[in-house]
Amino acid sequence: MNVINKIERVRRTFAGLKTDRVPVMLYRHFFDQNEDNSVNDYVQWAKETDIDILLVQVDGFDGLPINNVSGSINDFCTYPEITKNHPFIQGQVDRVKRIFSELKDTAIYGLLYTPYNNIKKTAKYSFESKINIDNEFYKENKVIDNTMEFAQKCNDILLEEYYKIGIEGVMISLRNGGNEAIPSDIYRKRLLKWDEHLVSKANSYFKNNIIHYCAWYGKNDLSLWSHLESAGINWDTHVEQDPGTNEIMTITKANDYFDKNITLIAGFNNRANSLIYSNDEETIKATTKKYISEARGRKFIIGADCSIDSSISSETIRWIIEAAKI
Fold first, then answer.
1. What pLDDT sits at residue 132?
2. Cα–Cα distance for residue pair 249/88, rounded to 1 Å
3. CA of 16: how far to CAs of 31, 37, 310, 321, in Å?
4. Residue ranges with strand state E in the chain
5. Can you give the pLDDT at residue 98?
6. What are the strands of the beta sheet with 210-213, ordered from one edge?
């Protein structure tokens, strides 16, 4: 098959059509903010790596626009009037819009976190983790529910603005589901509805959204989210488990667990000192082909468990792309 452009390659993969090679989606952070809003950093990295799917992260806009005045949960009682013109929204939209205009041949995705995780991020970054959001949640503090509504509105506005830009879709990060902090029964009763709203809203705008099961804080109970619809799923193949058997959710295992209509996005361990951080071209290429083989011909995109470190060279990613040729 002739070489096709990156957007067409990704769309055809989600549709289950033949492509010239397996697409690659590896993503990273750009923590150092600058006057350019990290736009040039993303564009340069995308061009150097030739990545098919570029995920635009929320660095610099983590959490919610809530000011730390008293250093207490009381600060979560006061929210700004949130519209598309608020700097919190404008900054994220500006980044995505300008990256999109520079990379017309790349599948651009925005990143969204669930309301509860955005509240936890706010406590971590704006309040230096001095507020225990989980404790407030268990107190059934009304402030948390009200802030969830505010966080949901922020996501709703971002979705509409991203749709206007014309990007391919969004990746929704789901985490802290059924872990020690919030057991599955409580999560299902009090938090799941917010996840459902976010996924449903995203699907009303975009056809090819991705759900990311984030295992940064440990494995999740994947059964909580099994009914949520998405075109693709990206998960941690070294931590997440099959809820029925407790076996590690490898690519091979995922073939049987996830619906065949879902595109699997998985592969490399993103943790320090794992293979992807080596300069072993031969093994990296062989491992890429192994992952493709484990997908057994189903819709598949080469990925990693989560964000890769900035120390990984662009050359390493190009090796993976070279090995992904069918």
1. 94
2. 36
3. 35, 36, 32, 19
4. 53-56, 107-113, 169-174, 210-213, 232-235, 263-268, 300-304
5. 99
6. 53-56, 107-113, 169-174, 210-213, 232-235, 263-268, 300-304
Closest CA to 76 of 9, 140, 145: 145
Q: How far is CA 312 from the centre of its chain?
A: 19
Domains of the chain (ranges; CATH) run 6-323 (3.20.20.210)
Whether 196 and 155 have beta carbons less than 8 Å apart is answered as: no
The Cβ of residue 98 has, within 10 Å, a number of other Cβ atoms equal to 18
- Contact call for residues 174 and 214 (beta carbons, < 8 A): yes
Return the exposure string of 61-95: e unless at least 16 CB atoms fall within 10 Å of the residue's CB, then b: bebbbbeeeeeebebbeebeebeeeeebbbbbbeb
**3-class secondary structure, 61:** coil
**Buried b / exposed e along 160-190 (16+ C-beta atoms within 10 A):** ebbbeeebbbbbbbbbbbbbebbebeebbeb
CA dihedral 149, 155, 161, 162 (to 10 degrees): -160
Q: For residue 100, which of 167, 1, 185 has the smallest C-alpha distance?
A: 167
Residues of the chain where predicted confidence (pLDDT) is lower than 70: none
User: How confident is the model at residue 180, as a pLDDT?
Assistant: 82
Residue 173 three-state SS: strand
Q: Of 86, 182, 100, 172, whose CA–CA distance to 134 is shortest?
A: 182
Q: What is the distance between the alpha carbons of residues 284 and 104, in angstroms, rounded to a whole number? A: 29
* CA-wise closest residue to 302 among 277, 318, 324: 324
Burial of 102 (0-12, 13-18, 19+ CB in 10 A): middle
Which residues are CB-neighbours of 243 under 8 A, at least 6 positions away?
Answer: 221, 222, 223
